[in-house]
Every structure is written in structure tokens, then in C-alpha cells.
Specification:
Layout lengths: L9 H13 L3 H8 L3 H14 L14 H18 L1
Helix pairs in contact: 1-3
């Protein structure tokens, strides 16, 4: 039987990340929230990269600055070719 993936509320994820930045023992915090410590570290990394909008549930819409710059360059090149 396949186990379903848990969906965490964005407010819960944000609060967990903010508390993890304040505390020294992240493993203990993860136990308090009943989540795996690896998941908390993943959330921290995502929060660091994307900020407050990290947990909007629209993960596929997030782009890094590098990706945005690349896509803008591609668009500019395509527009020049079409002129």
C-alpha cells in the first residue's frame, strides 16, 4: 500500500523555519513539530532561496534569478530574430 504524502500548511512551514533559525538544536525542534529533520533543513534552504513566498504551494512557478535572466535573454534573442 502506497503511503500518501503529507501536505503542510504554508504558515506551519514558515513558523518552523523561523523557529529553526532562532534555536541551536534543530533536531529537537523537528521532533517537537513531528517532522523529519531533513524536511526542516529542506524548508530552510527553500526559504533562504525564495523568501516568504517559498511555501505557496506553487513550487513549479518559482524561478531563480539566474533562470529569469536566462529566459529574458532568450526572449530578447527571439525578438531580434523575428524583426
Amino acid at each position: 500500500m502506497k503511503q500518501e504524502r503529507k501536505n503542510y500548511d504554508p504558515a506551519f512551514q514558515t513558523k518552523a523555519v523561523e523557529l529553526s533559525n532562532e534555536r541551536s538544536n534543530i533536531s529537537e525542534l523537528a521532533r517537537e513539530f513531528s517532522i523529519k529533520v531533513t524536511l526542516l533543513y529542506k524548508w530552510r534552504k527553500e526559504y533562504e532561496e525564495f523568501g516568504k513566498g517559498s511555501f505557496s504551494g506553487k513550487r513549479n512557478l518559482k524561478l531563480t534569478q539566474e533562470q529569469i535572466h536566462y529566459l529574458e535573454k532568450e526572449l530578447e534573442d527571439a525578438e531580434l530574430i523575428n524583426q
